[in-house]
Amino acid sequence: MAAALLAVLGLALLGAESGSGAGSAISTSISTDGSKTHLTCTLNGSDTEIVGHRWVKGDKVLKEDALPGLKTQYELDTEEGGGQYLCVFLPEVVGKASVNVKGPPKVKAVKKSEHVTEGEGAVLACKSESFPPITEWVWYKVGDTEHQVLTNNSQGKVFVVSTETRTELHILNLDLEADPGQYVCNGSSTEGTGHAVVTLHVRSQLAALWPFLGIVAEVLVLVTVIFIYEKRRKPDEVPDDEDTGSAPLKSSGHHVNDKGKSVRQRNAS
């Protein structure tokens, strides 16, 4: 218990030393209550009316309010690890201060998996906002028997770019057989180490054509069905422009014979 209290006191002193108000003095403190860690910023005084407070970590706003007051607090899970937090009294001209929470590195993969076509390049990335910052980044590929450490000279197609908060592994000209697998980024600081895993999937160049080939196949099937239907279709009715003609009228010889017979009878009489 005594060791824990000393550790908390040390963190509080560290936080107090890191306070740096702009125009007004800001004191900071850190306290731990079980699984929660409380960060506090206190403004000693201000001639400007305070209209709110903001807590920031990196480029992410964690909390913001529109309350007055010379004190603001932020609560986080102790297991979240260390980092550099910034408290801001609004408007920003009033003052701001940083609160540094020590802890082992919390390394996160920017993307847990990447899908890239063979022959192209891949970029695998990890980040950490822990405090103190990462002093050394190491990449390696997980193998069946041992891990292969990757450096700028590995295989002639791999290079690493790193800063305190981010590391990137660049792999050129991906091979379908050799390059897929799990890659681990490991970050170390004075407080310990942390790591994250990124899975790389490499697909065949033909895989990108599969959707297009599927569309072409569907079109061909549709055209074939239409063609067969047109060939087998029978007309339902006779077209109007076809003239079947009319049967010729037959002359009756009966009346002609009767007329001739009457003439002959008159002549005989």
TrEMBL record:
GO molecular function: CD4 receptor binding; D-mannose binding; protein phosphatase binding; sialic acid binding
The keyword Lyase appears for this protein: no
Recorded topology in the membrane: Single-pass type I membrane protein
Compartments it resides in: Basolateral cell membrane; Endoplasmic reticulum membrane
Pfam families reported in the protein's UniProt record: Ig_3
Gene Ontology CC annotation, any one: basolateral plasma membrane
Annotated keywords: Cell membrane, Disulfide bond, Endoplasmic reticulum, Glycoprotein, Immunoglobulin domain, Lectin, Mannose-binding, Membrane, Receptor, Signal, Transmembrane, Transmembrane helix
SMART domains: IG (SM00409)
Domain Ig-like: start-end pairs: 105-199
Gene Ontology BP terms: B cell activation; negative regulation of B cell receptor signaling pathway; regulation of B cell proliferation
Signal peptide residue numbers: 1-18
Disordered: annotated span: 235-269
InterPro entries: Ig-like_dom, Ig-like_dom_sf, Ig-like_fold, Ig_sub
Primary location: membrane
Organism superkingdom: Eukaryota
Residue ranges of the TM segments: 208-229
PANTHER family found in the cross-reference section: B-CELL RECEPTOR CD22
Name the UniProt record assigns to this protein: Basigin
